[in-house]
Amino acid sequence: MGSELNKKKAAIIAIGDEILIGQIPDTNSNWLAIEFHAMGIDLLKVVVVGDDIGEILSTIKSLEKEVRLIVLTGGLGPTRDDRTKEAIADYLGYPLEFNQSVFDWIAEHKEKQGSRPNDLHKKQAILPRNMKFFRNTKGTAPGMLGEKNGTLIVSVPGVPYEMKSLMKEQIFPYLFDKIDLKVIRTKTLLTIGLPESEIAERLTEFENQLPKGLSLAYLPGHTRIRLRLTAASNDGDAAEKLLQDYVQKMYSVLGLTIFGEGDDTLEEVVGKILRQKGLTISTAESCTGGFISHLITSVSGSSDYYRGSVIAYDNSVKVAELNVPEEVLESDGAVSERTVRYMLSGICAKMSTDLGIAISGIAGPGGGSKEKPVGTVWVAVGYSDVQVVKRLNLNLDRKLNIEKSGLLALNMLRLFLLSN
Length: 420
Fold this sequence. Notes:
Blueprint: H1 2-7, E1 9-15, H2 17-20, H3 27-39, E2 42-49, H4 53-64, E3 69-73, H5 84-92, E4 96-98, H6 100-112, H7 119-124, E5 126-128, E6 132-134, E7 143-148, E8 151-156, H8 160-178, E9 183-192, H9 196-202, H10 204-208, E10 214-220, E11 224-233, H11 236-254, E12 258-261, H12 266-277, E13 281-285, H13 291-297, E14 306-311, H14 315-322, H15 326-332, H16 337-351, E15 355-361, E16 376-382, E17 387-393, H17 398-419
Parallel strand pairs: 1-2, 1-3, 3-8, 13-14, 13-15
Antiparallel strand pairs: 4-5, 6-7, 7-8, 9-11, 9-12, 10-11, 15-16, 16-17
Helix pairs in contact: 4-5, 12-17
């Protein structure tokens, strides 16, 4: 059974009407998927069903033909709508019966809370015969494990912290004893500035040379793309070495397109560079309305390098606060190269900072023209006298135009700092 499960796949059944109607999110499946991946178990499906015995039972039966491990979350409470154990008993062909040992666990848990078990808790102790039970130290519903025709059925409570405790402390160790699992190592590299298609083109030769046991996944977003490299081996050290060798090759191919790893954020990376160089910065924003300053100040300790911002949304503010000449606004317009250059010089002088970011554009949905359509954004970064200026041509909705232009402006600053 163990070797067979290692070769097959797993499925998750999230149970609860409250999930189906969108009342609560299914965070359990997300957590389990991450844990399965780390254990080397391939997750084939995640299915959400309501609190209906027939639906739960038919879903289990449909999945047993495709997978060798099924984990059910939810439906183990003491109320009438908690029907999971009945469906499992039906599937396994076991009768439901009162389990004194489980009831003793429940009673002990309630006593620690200063109360006593009631009739509903007795109902929770009526469980399928012949299953293995795992004590829930965080609640009253036990974890359960059974087997039919080589398929393992695991059932855990739907309360996230109870489910995680049972899986991590008891059920996963039990599975490790039964399954010869591979060691999985992953590294996620974060990129910005290039579309997925161009990154894929640059990595074509790299992907063609990937050895067995190593895989690359693209996780695209509107602005940033995550590249997840996964190594699988029977030996942890071998998996780690294989992973690190090919991570370095990815850096050599993509260079500064990679801005970080794992949970890094662009604003954290930029802040670290500013702190290392001992530089200060301020921002002058028009179309982004403070989004860039929000990103910068979301980092703890950003007061070490960030001084402040002027939201120059109206032209009068650009003139009065940033010393943008009126004739430049009249001749070139607010969305222009010369305007953001003056905005940058003005904010550096006003805030007495080494560096600045200036941005002005048309976020939409209105305000565009043939020469300057919606999504036209000018960005300037750098010192007062040494600047890099770029025109962005975006084609998104208002919210995404603001977010993407703000992130690309931060990335322009990152590249400027690394090259100067």
